[in-house]
Design brief:
single chain, 357 residues, alpha+beta, Glutamine Phosphoribosylpyrophosphate, subunit 1, domain 1, 2 domains, eight-stranded mixed beta sheet, five-stranded mixed beta sheet, 31% helix, binds glycine
């Protein structure tokens, strides 16, 4: 567990990153940078293939937004990943609804889609919202119509595996309805782990020219109310990029994050000189403090009853991540390609869980 950063330590960090950037940002303006710097791609723990792919594209000189989108598309298209795209767990009506946002540092532009049905790669549609409309967010049927206008084909995103999880949940929800389930201990455990997991993938990158970009994409909460939108497609909450400072994104309990503009806060703390990891922690501490006012977000000890993680990379190519809670080995890691090596690293956390779920 990490030592909390004291207020004095925080103030001592001062400011400084901004001066290092040499950049002309804005639509249609060329990006200028004196010399090549350190490339880095950081992602949530389910993003090891994404960081590998994104780095491969950065090395070819591709735009960092194209690189991270190509990276997360691997996970979105993977039926084995239950938290994103095809194979993602559905809403309470058994329908998969996807959310995604993208942000491009050099142009400070972004796009997003929410509650998008039947389209496997919402991050690609989010990029088209950015490039081919003057809007920032399209939702539901409008987002689907827009995707189809751009040639995306509708497909059923509900895999048999996801449908079975949905059916188990439906059948075990209440003993006062007409649904029966073969109730076993194994099923109980399985459901507990599904309900407490809200996967998502975030991936942020800096290229050799010091340009930043990020993407966040998810199928949101399992069994959510149809139409529920999480933090992933909300620029400032699930993703934020400032080309002169850094990029950050999140996974976990969207509602707690939306109410605190978490990714914006991470980038803002980095602008004050905090390292990416310190900025992620400071943001989690803020969110924890504010969540004390919301009893439905607290457990019996008054601590956050939700998981939330942030991932960040700054203008120098330094990276970091932090989580509210510890967890099982395989889920509490983040992925990073630092230009030399692609690896999973343990995420430092604020609180240690007594029960590892
Ligand atoms: N962070 C994903 C969600 O809340 O939907």
């Amino acid at each position: 567990m990490r030592d909390k950063l004291s207020r004095r330590d925080f103030l001592k960090t001062g400011i400084g990153i901004g001066a290092a950037s040499v950049l002309t940002a804005g639509k249609n303006l060329a990006v200028q940078q004196k010399k090549e710097g350190k490339m880095c791609v950081v992602a949530s723990g389910n993003g090891l293939r994404a960081t590998e792919k994104a780095m491969e594209l950065l090395r070819q000189g591709k735009d960092p937004l194209d690189a991270v989108i190509a990276g997360v598309n691997i996970v979105e298209s993977d039926p084995e990943d239950r938290s994103v795209g095809y194979g993602g767990l559905p809403n309470e009506e058994g329908v998969v609804e996807l959310d995604s946002s993208v942000m491009h540092g050099p142009t400070h532009n972004g796009g997003a889609v929410a509650s998008l049905r039947n389209i496997k790669n919402p991050s690609k549609v989010a990029k088209l919202v950015m490039e081919r409309t003057d809007h920032a967010l399209l939702v539901g049927k409008g987002a689907l119509r827009f995707a189809k206008a751009h040639g995306f084909k509708e497909e059923n995103l509900l895999t048999d595996e996801a449908r079975e999880r949905w059916l188990e949940r439906k059948e075990t929800l209440s003993d006062r309805d007409y649904w029966f389930a073969p109730k076993t201990e194994e099923l109980e455990k399985e459901l507990e782990s599904y309900l407490s997991s809200h996967g998502t993938i975030n991936c942020c990158a800096i290229d050799a020219l010091g340009n930043l970009a990020g993407v966040t994409t998810t199928s949101g909460f399992f069994f959510k109310i149809p139409g529920r939108v999480g933090d992933s497609p909300i620029i400032g909450a699930g993703l934020y990029v400032d080309n002169e400072i850094g990029a950050a994104g999140s996974t976990g309990r969207g509602e707690a994050n939306i109410l605190n503009c978490g990714s914006f806060q991470v980038v803002n703390f980095m602008s004050k000189g905090l390292s990416p990891e310190e900025a992620c922690f400071k943001t989690l501490e803020r969110i924890e403090e504010k969540s004390r006012l919301l009893p439905h977000l607290l457990n019996e000890k008054g601590l956050p009853r939700f998981g939330l993680s942030f991932y960040a990379v700054n203008k120098k190519g330094e990276y970091g991540a932090a989580s509210m809670w510890s967890g099982r080995e395989e889920v509490r890691k983040f992925a990073v390609h630092d230009g030399k090596e692609n690896k999973l690293k343990p995420i430092p956390y604020l609180y240690e869980r007594e029960k590892q779920i």
